[in-house]
Design brief:
The structure holds two protein chains of two kinds. Among the domains of chain A are: 205 residues, Leucine-rich Repeat Variant (Alpha Horseshoe); 104 residues; 43 residues, no CATH class; 130 residues, Immunoglobulin-like (Sandwich), CATH 2.60.40; 111 residues, 2-Layer Sandwich (TATA-Binding Protein). Helix content of chain A is 50%, strand content 10%. In chain A, the strands form three sheets. In chain A, strands 1-2-3-6-5 form a five-stranded antiparallel sheet, with no helix packed on it. Chain A has a five-stranded antiparallel sheet with strand order 9-13-12-11-10, sandwiched between helices. A three-stranded antiparallel sheet of chain A has the order 4-7-8, covered by helices on one side. The longest helix of chain A has 17 residues. Chain B is mainly beta. Chain B folds into three domains: 131 residues, Beta-Lactamase (2-Layer Sandwich), CATH 3.30.450.60; 151 residues, Immunoglobulin-like, CATH 2.60.40.1170; 112 residues, Immunoglobulin-like, CATH 2.60.40. Chain B contains eight helices and 26 strands. The chains are: A alpha+beta, B mainly beta. At the A-B interface, helix 2, helix 4, helix 6, helix 8 and helix 11 of A face strand 3, strand 4, helix 2, helix 4 and strand 7 of B. Chain A: It is a peripheral membrane protein. Chain A: This is Beta-adaptin-like protein.
Chain lengths: 898, 451
């Protein structure tokens, strides 16, 4: 071949498709090959070349492997959209699968498995059967994977045609590549089935262990991962396995090493001889350490795993703490993990060395890393009582450098040290108080206040110190307010003199009357009653001895730890979460059989919303057909549970049950946009919109029953969304007679269930009733319902905020259709929508307005609106720290300025 | 298993995109790119190599400025995927000679052909260039390598040193030379990355060598090779105390903490005479990786001083001494030293007659930077700098400045003293005498002197 492939990208002139068509049908081989390459080039950049299907398929019958591969690549891509035409290719496939050249046989069976078209699948069975018994190992290993492909398309077919047995036979194959692929395919099939399909017996165990030594590194990982499911019968059995697996620790491939470590750790649980265990620990240490010489990406995975291993078996790496010292050029994600492991391995023996390192890290540049280093010193103090004093002196040294965030972080950890060792280190309080004025982080402030309250009797001017904080009480964050309240009460109980008495009155008054934070108010009332009824009892309660704390931060719960250790070397061990927390493809529970599913498809279980809701469903090119074949043979499925609630739970990823319907309330208002037309809803029409009333967000929703029967039992559920909006109460809809309609305001709340990813205003809703299937629809709320009443900014703080935000965070957009007829009316109109006016100025003939708005989680928008009165067109510029919300903001803003 | 594999440019353009299972929703490449680009906007932090967004797991490495990414929906081994991504990059490089956006785009059909053999239905099949040769039919199209920064540690041989046949490293393993016949040659590179931390008083706090014996064979007919290392090479520290290595340093023998080998290596006689037997597969691969914490002589001694010189001034003195023999020359040396954040200006004073040295004060990152083109063994260089502060210092200058970090490359030098005693190629005929290149190089990994 000559020339550059990239030239295929450059044909953009008109009539490209007819031109290609002509070339594809050329009588010259080379020209045809070039044409197919052009088609593939077009395909990879996303152009639609499906109309050339027949012409490309015609090029398939060739002896030229290069050309054949290209045609197959095309087929995989377009067969789904042209299922009828794809049948044309079947004959060639079947013929190719019997070709004398093993590469062609393998290619045919590999490609056919990738074409997920039912009609083709049927033709796949015979060639696959032959290829599984082919003489050539390359064909057999390809066929083994093909069984897994077929199982994914049509599990029943695989079981009926006996492919599972054929696959199991391949475990005894003499070629290790074939064994490895058979193991991988069986493991995948087992993963999606509830029946035992692939069980490792002592017989298969021997075969797998033999194949392990010979196959490729990737095959070794497949086999090791399957072996990890094997339950050894006794200690001898376990020792035997470990002995065969240990040499894998020497492998240059980190995946092999980690998978081997997993098996050894699992089997160690059964081994009773302490000598053997000790020896194994010794053998595992060097390879684990060597993982840290790999690329930083692999180091990260290794460190996350080592973190788990040292929690269970600290002895393995107890002497290796030096290798976890941070290197100058480690990426930050590696440094953070190393720090965590250093804390776990810190002991009385190595603490001096470790402290020296931490101290050094605490003066580095990266703020997050520095904070974590300071915190690490505190955690070591709590963990090792004999080293506590040394840790504290290091902290004091750091405080003296007077780097603000270091000081604040140090104060936070010192509070914990005081909790751990009460009445031991108060002498340093004086030093801490020197930094009092510089505290601006809530957690540091709260910690300092706690210290003052706790040791009020030893600090001469405790009342003055607290009083200085009290001045700003109403503006403080809740965290600080709560600590101030408690500290003042402590002070009063310890020094019931006049000054503190006045202070306590002021605080209690502030915390009960002038706050809208229920936690603060409740705590204040409790103190108030305690103090007024029985001051002695108050003393017993407030000044009670506190339980001693230990360093359990970042320590995992033992049962979770065991589960994660069983998942060493997997994603689970990197996230430190059990697999079910992030893998959505769970074992196919007995599902409803084909018919019901097909039925649901027809009756309006429309696929687009469901795929939108369920992130794990196939990409949109995979139509309903991929849903139709059930993973389970119908016969094996026991009575299917009512699918609807399950489905809802799955789709929404929420575990709270549906909100039941209570008594009805009637509401009226302007007509709402239709979100579920009656044609889709089998007669039920739903209209809805997010609205804001009196500072609260409601879902204004109306139901219209166009069916022949009564509809009742309405429930509603919202999928995770950007703002974590969820129903704040039950949906109140009365039973709807035919022809009836009902409208209600559903209060909405902000839950923790926030979807990640780029913010959007999409609201995915599921509604059900007792008579119909679940309806899913997408509603698009405008950002302006989230604009809070607290969005008004002071002029000065607006200016400061505007200046402090980098210019990168400024965005602007023209609203060509907006006309401002009166400045005052616009200001009034905008402030009704919680976009608050701050200032205005004139620039030539233009008016410039400065406005502010705020959405939940305290995200502000600083707005500059430029327009000429009466002239269409306005320019809106916005600055915000959270630039990802900007598109949504403009979307919401435009209709407000009409 | 693997759902998708893709390669993105630094700007987020798709260069290669292959979906193996059709289970990940559309737009994954964009979602990935946005996440990586804006991982933590204010902190300029790098995204970790493994993360999950909306149920899709993204695993990536950065090679030659490109993002190599796989996605998966299941709980599989991320180290497998990371290794695989590195291996795909290496195989592609073997085929294309150079790995960059241009070469990938020019050869996209070959790349897709490779990907189909490397991964089937999301399962890695083979990543050995040698094995792949029987299944790959497209011929690579060479791109002009002259301008391209080459990939991998062997690239350091390209820098200025005329002894090395520069084009060899960017030569495709499979493509035929324009002249028709391939040149018979084999490269064995002993590449060592050293990490040393000096305490403020000049003691060595930690030291470590990460080494690789890398091989790249252009030999036809896959002859067997014998590679002999130091006869007295020891493996595994006897005890496990962190200070243990000091006791073994007197003996003069090289003791590795740990090592591992490529799967083609036969270790039958390794325990007896420290010889490795192998039939090298085509392509570049590490024969052996090793790690050593045994005490060694660091190639450079670094001394740094910072002293107050008046109320809002300070003086810095940096000194480096090359502790290696005079026939060895280090090149591209960079010394960096962070200074207090309130430093406004820095003026430098180089030693008299300094050649090929530049200095800079990086205002954005508050760092002094000192670049030296080369340093000959045995020589010593100093730099003085005067700093002007915008405020009075807190009297704690050593805590607010440093540590000094050094970067360098020293060709034909290895810190560990691990040697290839001989490289024997089993002869096909008497006249068969392929070129053998055994090259040593030492690079700084994390070379730090604290203040």
């Amino acid at each position: 071949m000559s020339g550059h492939d990239s030239k295929y990208f450059s044909t953009t002139k008109k009539g490209e498709i007819p031109e290609l068509k002509e070339e594809l049908n050329s009588q010259y081989k080379d020209k045809r090959k070039d044409a197919v390459k052009k088609v593939i080039a077009a395909m990879t950049v996303g152009k639609d070349v499906s109309s050339l299907f027949t012409d490309v398929v015609n090029c398939m019958q060739t002896e030229n492997l290069e050309l054949k591969k290209l045609v197959y690549l095309y087929l995989i891509n377009y067969a789904k959209s042209q299922p009828d035409l794809a049948i044309l290719a079947v004959n060639t496939f079947v013929k190719d699968s019997q070709d004398p050249n093993p590469l062609i046989r393998a290619l045919a069976v590999r490609t056919m498995g990738c074409i997920r078209v039912d009609k083709i699948t049927e033709y796949l069975c015979d060639p696959l059967q032959r290829c599984l018994k082919d003489d050539d190992p390359y064909v057999r290993k390809t066929a083994a994977i093909c069984v897994a492909k077929l199982y994914d398309i049509n599990a029943e077919l695989v079981e009926d045609r006996g492919f599972l047995e054929a696959l199991k036979d391949l475990i005894s194959d003499n070629n290790p590549m074939v064994v490895a692929n058979a193991v991988a395919a069986l493991a995948e099939i087992q993963e999606s089935s509830v029946r035992p399909i692939f069980e490792i017996t002592s017989h298969t165990l021997t075969k797998l262990l033999t194949a392990l030594n010979e196959c490729t590194e990737w095959g070794q990982v497949f086999i090791l991962d399957s072996l990890s499911r094997y339950k050894a019968t006794d200690a001898r059995d376990a020792e035997n396995i470990v002995e065969r697996v240990t040499p894998r620790l020497q492998h240059a491939n980190c995946a092999v090493v980690l998978s081997a470590v997993k098996i050894i750790l699992l089997q160690m649980e059964l081994i009773t001889s302490t000598d053997v265990v000790r020896n194994l620990c010794k053998k595992m240490a060097p390879p684990l350490v060597t993982l840290l010489s790999a690329e930083p990406e692999i180091q990260y995975v290794a460190l996350r795993n080592i973190n788990l291993i040292v929690q269970k078996r600290p002895t393995i790496l107890a002497h290796e703490i030096k290798v976890f010292f941070c290197k100058y050029n480690d990426p930050i994600y590696v440094k953070m993990e190393k720090l965590e492991i250093m804390i776990k391995l810190a002991s009385d023996r190595n603490i001096d060395q470790v402290l020296l390192e931490f101290k050094e890290y605490a003066t580095e540049v990266d703020v997050d890393f520095v904070r974590k280093a300071v915190r690490a010193i505190g955690r070591c103090a709590i963990k090792l009582d004999r080293a506590a004093e040394r840790c504290i002196s290091v902290l004091l040294e750091l405080i003296k450098i007077k780097v603000n965030y270091v000081v604040q972080e140090a104060i936070i950890v010192i509070k914990d040290i005081f909790r751990r060792y009460p009445n031991t280190y108060e002498s340093i309080i004086a030093t801490l108080c020197e930094s009092l004025d510089n505290l601006d982080e809530p957690e540091a402030k709260a910690s300092m206040i706690w210290i003052i309250g706790e040791y009020a009797e030893r600090i001469d001017n405790a009342d003055e110190l607290l009083e200085s904080f009290l001045e700003t009480f109403p503006e403080e964050p809740a965290l600080v307010q709560l600590q101030l309240l408690t500290a003042t009460v402590k002070l009063f109980l310890k020094k019931p003199t006049e000054g503190p008495q006045q202070m306590i009155q002021a605080v209690l008054n502030n915390a009960t009357v002038e706050t809208d934070n229920p936690d603060l108010r409740d705590r204040a009332y409790i103190y108030w009653r305690l103090l007024s009824t029985d001051p002695e009892a108050a003393k017993d309660v407030v000044l009670a001895e506190k339980p001693v704390i230990s360093d359990d931060s970042n320590q995992l719960d033992p049962s979770l730890l065991d589960e994660l250790l069983a998942n060493i070397s997997t994603l689970s061990s990197v996230y430190h979460k059990p697999p079910e927390a992030f893998v959505s493809r769970v074992k196919a529970a007995p599902r409803a059989d084909d018919e019901e599913f097909a039925d649901a498809g027809e009756t309006g279980y429309s696929e687009s919303p469901s795929q939108g809701v369920d992130g794990s469903s196939p990409s949109s090119s995979a139509g309903t057909s991929s849903h139709v074949p059930a993973k389970q043979p119908a016969a094996a499925a026991p009575a299917a549970p009512a699918p609807i609630p399950d489905l809802l739970g799955d789709l929404m990823g929420l575990d709270n049950a549906l909100v039941p319907v209570d008594e009805p309330t009637a509401t009226s208002g302007p007509p709402l946009p239709v979100v579920l037309p009656s044609t889709t809803g089998q007669g039920l029409q739903i209209s809805a919109q997010l609205v804001r009333r009196d500072g609260q967000i409601f879902y204004d929703i109306s139901f219209e029953n166009g069916t022949q029967g009564v509809l009742d039992g309405f429930m509603i559920q919202f999928n995770k969304n950007t703002f974590g909006l969820a129903a704040g109460g039950p949906l109140q809809v009365p039973p709807l007679q035919p022809g009836d309609s009902s409208r209600t305001l559903l209060p909405m709340v902000f839950s923790q269930n926030v979807s990640t990813g780029a913010p959007n205003s999409l609201l995915q809703v599921a509604v059900k009733n007792n008579q119909q299937p679940v309806w899913y629809f997408n509603d698009k709320g405008s950002l302006h319902v989230f604009f809070g009443e607290d969005g008004k900014m002071e002029r000065t703080s607006f200016l400061e905020a505007w200046k402090s935000l980098p210019d990168d965070n400024e965005f602007s957009k023209e609203f060509p259709n907006s006309v401002i007829n009166s400045i005052d009316a616009t200001i009034e109109h905008l402030s009704a929508s919680n976009v608050f006016f701050i200032a205005k100025r004139r620039n030539a003939n233009m008016d410039v307005l400065y406005l502010s708005a705020k959405i939940p989680r305290g995200i502000p928008f600083l707005i500059e609106l430029t327009a000429a009165v009466g002239v269409p067109g306005a320019k809106c510029a916005v600055k915000t720290p959270n630039r990802e919300y900007v598109p949504l903001f403009f979307e919401a803003m435009e209709p407000l300025i009409k | 298993m693997i759902s998708q594999f893709f390669v993105l440019s630094q700007r987020g353009d798709h260069i290669v995109f292959r979906d193996y299972r059709g289970e990940v929703p559309k737009g994954s490449a964009e979602i990935f790119f946005r996440k990586v680009k804006f991982w933590n906007e204010d902190e300029a932090e790098e995204a970790p190599p493994v993360f999950n967004i909306d149920g899709v797991n993204y695993i990536h490495v950065k090679v030659a400025g490109l993002y190599f990414v796989v996605t998966t929906m299941v709980n599989i081994s991320p180290s497998l995927l990371l290794e695989l991504l590195q291996r795909i990059a290496r195989v592609t490089k073997d085929y294309l000679g150079v790995l960059n956006e241009d070469s990938l785009r020019k050869n996209f059909i070959l790349v897709y052909e490779l990907l189909d053999e490397v991964i089937d239905f999301g399962y890695p099949q083979t990543t050995s260039t040698e094995a792949l040769k029987s299944y790959i039919f497209n011929e690579p199209i060479m791109v002009d390598a002259g301008r391209m920064p080459p990939l991998g540690p062997a690239a350091m041989f390209m820098q200025g040193s005329k002894r090395m046949p520069g084009t060899a490293v960017t030569k495709s393993v499979v493509a035929n030379e324009p002249g028709g016949k391939k040149r018979e040659e084999i490269f064995v590179d002993i590449i060592e990355k050293i990490s040393v931390t000096f305490s403020s008083s000049g003691y060595i706090l930690t030291s470590e060598i990460d080494g690789t014996i890398q091989m790249k064979s252009y030999l036809s007919g896959n002859p067997e090779i014998r590679l002999a290392l130091n006869e007295d090479l020891g493996i595994g520290r006897s005890g496990s105390s962190t200070h243990d290595y000091r006791s073994s340093s007197g003996g003069g023998s090289v003791v590795l903490d740990d090592c591992n080998f490529h799967e083609s290596v036969q270790l039958d006689s390794f325990d007896i005479d420290r010889t490795l037997h192998l039939i090298p597969p085509d392509g570049e691969f590490p024969v052996m990786n090793y790690r050593m914490t045994q005490e060694f002589k660091p190639p450079f001694r670094v001394t740094a001083l910072i002293e107050e010189a008046g109320p809002s001034r300070a003086e810095v003195l940096l000194k480096i001494r090359a502790d290696f023999s005079a026939n060895v020359t280090a090149n591209t040396i960079t010394v960096q030293m962070p200074v207090p954040s309130y430093t406004m200006r820095a003026s430098f004073e180089l030693e008299a007659g300094a050649v090929g040295q530049t200095t800079d004060f990086k205002e954005g990152s508050r760092r002094l930077e000192w670049n030296l083109k080369k340093i000959v063994g045995g020589s010593e260089h100093t730099l003085r700098a005067k700093l002007t502060f915008s405020q009075e210092s807190h009297g704690n200058l050593t805590k607010e400045a440093g540590p000094v970090n050094m970067n360098f490359t020293i060709p034909m030098y290895n810190a560990s003293k691990l040697q290839v005693r001989y490289l024997q190629i089993s002869k096909k005929s008497k006249t068969y005498n392929p070129y053998r290149w055994v090259r040593y190089v030492t690079q700084a990994n994390s070379y730090v002197a604290r203040l």
